[in-house]
Amino acid sequence: MFLRSFSCAAPMTPTPNPKPDAATAAGYVSDLVALMQLAPTGEDRFRGQSHNIGTPAVFGGQVLAQSLVAASLTVPADRAVHSMHAYFLLPGQHAPIDYTVHRARDGRSFTTRHVIAKQEGREIFEMAASFQTRDEGIDHQDAMPSTVDPLSAPSELERRIALGDRVPAPYRFRALLSPGLEIRVVDAPDLLAPVPCPPKSQIWMRAIAPLPDDPLVHRALLAYASDNGLLRAAMNPHALTFFSNKLRVASLDHAMWFHRDFRMDQWLLYVIDSPSASGARGLCRGSIFTQDGRLVASTAQEGMIRVRED
To answer: Domain containing 39: what range?
Structure first.
């Protein structure tokens, strides 16, 4: 559960350079890849480290990605993940996380794994993931909607830096992802003075330096990035942003399907919509396309969205 309520200040970190040189960019990406690497602690047990991106609780995308890696480490290399369904149970701390994998099924074509993430003996997250051998079959997809060039919009980091002192100090670096990822929101709302707009969003994203060729690294990093920006679409019609101090938001669950091969160090377009919000919950859906229009993944997430009247 990635809580986005900011009644207390998150630890401040130095502002990353929005346009780092090649060596610095490679270092950022190397750190992000290292975050995906887990240490074995027993049979089908692993431990992952945590990175504080400036939020009160550990970033949900980090737990998603590390859980996927943990499950993948118990699956034959010829089987790639095609779907994952997760629940955020409790806010995680900025501390190591222990993952336990249950080998639910090993079939002829499909493999199923269950993963439990714990901190200090408490279950904070659970996930089921399915893996499949590479098979041939029918093939079709939705077309990628029209959009703009990814470099036509400022990056999220540039937008936050431009706000400067207009944002209270505890909030300035809130919800920034790893500096190893570049995020550019198309038609982004004004973070300080939003107006009602359709429950939709388009986000360009990529790693800022070349990644290893290991497909698991790319899938894990896409899972990491997929938790960023989804719930924003549910807030748009209500003129709310994550900078709204009367807002309390938490990811409740997250589903993801992988359709086709891709590289996370090339531009991907995240197309998001929110078909419904009610009962202090918002449902959002996402489609992820390569720059040339191939649909490579789909997501769905429901989140708690509470607005304090005071």
So the answer is: 22-134+152-307
Q: Which amino acids are annotated catalytic? A: 227, 251, 301
DSSP state string for 69-82: HHHHTTS-TTEEEE
Q: Could you tell me if residue 2 is inside a domain?
A: no
Structural domain count of the chain: 1
Q: Is residue 64 part of a domain?
A: yes
Is the Cβ–Cβ distance between 275 and 285 less than 8 Å?
A: yes
- The CATH number linked to 263 is 2.40.160.210
Whether residue 285 lies inside any domain: the answer is yes
Q: What is the pLDDT along the chain (310 residues), one digit of tens a residue?
A: 433 332 323 343 456 677 888 999 999 999 999 999 999 999 999 999 999 887 788 999 999 999 999 999 999 999 999 999 999 999 999 999 999 999 999 999 999 999 999 999 999 999 999 999 999 999 999 999 999 999 998 888 888 778 777 776 655 655 467 889 999 999 888 878 889 999 999 999 999 999 999 999 999 999 999 999 899 999 999 998 877 778 889 999 999 999 999 999 999 999 999 999 999 999 999 999 999 999 999 999 999 999 987 6
Burial 271-304 (b: 16+ CB within 10 A, else e): bbbbeebeeeebbbbbbbbbeeeebbbbbebbbb
Domain contains 16? no
